[in-house]
Structures are given as C-alpha cells and as structure tokens.
C-alpha cells in the first residue's frame, strides 16, 4: 500500500525536522529561553546530579512511559546517572488502587525525592493529571522539575518546570519521537563528556 504524501517516510521526516526546528523552551513563568541554552542548562543539572549522587526520576503514561524507560536506561547506562522510572507494576498498581491513579506518581515522589534530585515529567498533551501532580509534588519536595510536552501551547504542564520543552504538534507520534530525541541528545552529550 502506497502512503499518502504527508504520511510517506520522506514527508514525515521533513515534518519531524520542521517540528524540532520549531521546538520551544520556557522557564517556570513561561518566558522564552533559547532552546540550545536550555538543553545545555539541563545537561549541567544532570552532571551536578551525577556528581552530587542525586537521582533522576522520569514519569510518563503510555507512549510517554516508554520514552521515560528508554531515557532512564540511556541515562543510567551511558550517562552514569542514578536514573529510574516509577512504573514498576506492583508499586504503581498499589499506589493507584490506594490513592487514585491521578496521585500514584505524586505519592511515590513524596517519599523518594530529595533536594537536588531531578524529575523529568513527560506528557504529550501536557494535560495528564497524574503527571501534573507528580511535577507539583517533586517541586514541593525540593526536586528540580523539567517538563516535556506538546499539543496546545497553553497546556498546564508547560509552566510547571523550571525548564519546559514544548513541541508544537498534536501528533502523538511526532511529539513522542521529539521527546525521545531531546532526551537521547542529553544522554549522548553526557556520555561524550565522560570520555573526553
């Protein structure tokens, strides 16, 4: 079956390249940050976490949970960070059952996050209540929150981190791959720095 032009591999690759070029970074007050500078700042924070023995937690639902798992593996293996996700099934279902799914990550982070830890909150729509509650709890516990979202420019997650990466697309595949690209770029930079 032949793909429609906008769904061809070449068409999608061009659209993805354009999406990355239009990616936006903001601070907690929604003021624009230069994108490359924001990525470098996150790298610096990850290095500080590694040096200080702090942890990096990644949270997401569905496809974003897959993105979080992949990034945690790269951060742990290649970048030598104490990185982990929080969706181990027994613990996740316990927290969801006892406190509601919207509070599951937040309950875990309330016990886990220490000052200096980083929490990367990933949501394609930026509207997932459990991810927003996790970001709020992480900040209250003294963690540094970095968000990755897409879809609407005014999504609520986009203002919850000290640095927020936003992709201007409502296409789940494009947003998820874009988030993975940004996170992979971070781990690649950290890995390269370790070998220099």
Give me a quick take on this structure.
This protein has 196 residues and is an alpha/beta fold.
How would you characterize the overall build of this protein?
The N and C termini lie far apart (47 Å). With 196 residues, this protein is α/β, with parallel strands linked by helices. Helix content is 52%, strand content 15%. The chain has one domain: Rossmann fold (3-Layer(aba) Sandwich). It has a 7-stranded mixed β-sheet with strand order 2-1-7-6-5-3-4, with helices on both faces. α2 packs across α7, α3 runs parallel beside α7 and α4 crosses α5.
Write the layout of secondary structure elements.
Elements: H1 9-21, E1 24-26, E2 32-33, H2 35-52, E3 55-59, H3 63-77, E4 82-85, H4 89-99, H5 104-112, E5 118-123, H6 129-140, E6 144-149, E7 163-166, H7 172-195
Parallel strand pairs: 3-4, 3-5, 5-6, 6-7
Antiparallel strand pairs: 1-2, 1-7
Helix pairs in contact: 2-7, 3-7, 4-5, 5-6
The shape, in one word, is: globular
Flag low-confidence runs: none
DSSP E strands, number: 7
Strand order of the largest sheet: 2-1-7-6-5-3-4
Strand content: 15-25%
* Rg: 16 Å
Q: Structurally, how many domains make up the residues?
A: 1
The CATH architecture would be: 3-Layer(aba) Sandwich
CATH class: Alpha Beta
What structural class do helix, strand and pairing data support?
A: alpha/beta
CATH topology: Rossmann fold
Order of SSEs = HEEHEHEHHEHEEH
Percentage of helical residues?
Answer: 40-55%
How does the major sheet shape up?
Answer: 7 strands, mixed
Annotation field: number of helices:
7
What is the end-to-end distance? 47 Å
CATH homologous superfamily heading? Glucose-6-phosphate isomerase like protein, domain 1
Mean pLDDT: 96
């Amino acid at each position: 079956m032949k793909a429609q032009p906008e769904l061809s591999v070449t068409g999608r690759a061009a659209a993805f390249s354009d999406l990355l070029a239009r990616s936006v970074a903001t601070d907690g007050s929604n003021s624009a940050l230069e994108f490359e500078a924001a990525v470098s700042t996150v790298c610096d924070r990850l290095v500080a976490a590694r040096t200080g023995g702090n942890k990096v937690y990644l949270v997401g639902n569905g496809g974003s949970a897959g993105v979080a798992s992949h990034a945690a593996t790269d951060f742990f293996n290649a970048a030598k960070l104490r990185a982990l996700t929080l969706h181990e099934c027994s613990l996740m279902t316990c927290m969801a059952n006892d406190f509601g799914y919207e509070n599951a990550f937040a309950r875990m982070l309330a016990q886990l996050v220490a000052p200096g830890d980083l929490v990367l909150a990933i949501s394609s729509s930026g509207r997932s209540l459990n991810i927003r509650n996790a970001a709020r709890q992480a900040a209250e516990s003294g963690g540094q929150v970095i968000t990755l979202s897409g879809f609407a420019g005014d999504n609520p997650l986009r203002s919850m981190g000290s640095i927020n990466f936003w992709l201007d697309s409502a296409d789940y595949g494009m947003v998820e791959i874009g988030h993975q690209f940004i996170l992979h770029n971070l781990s690649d930079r950290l890995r390269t720095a370790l070998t220099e």
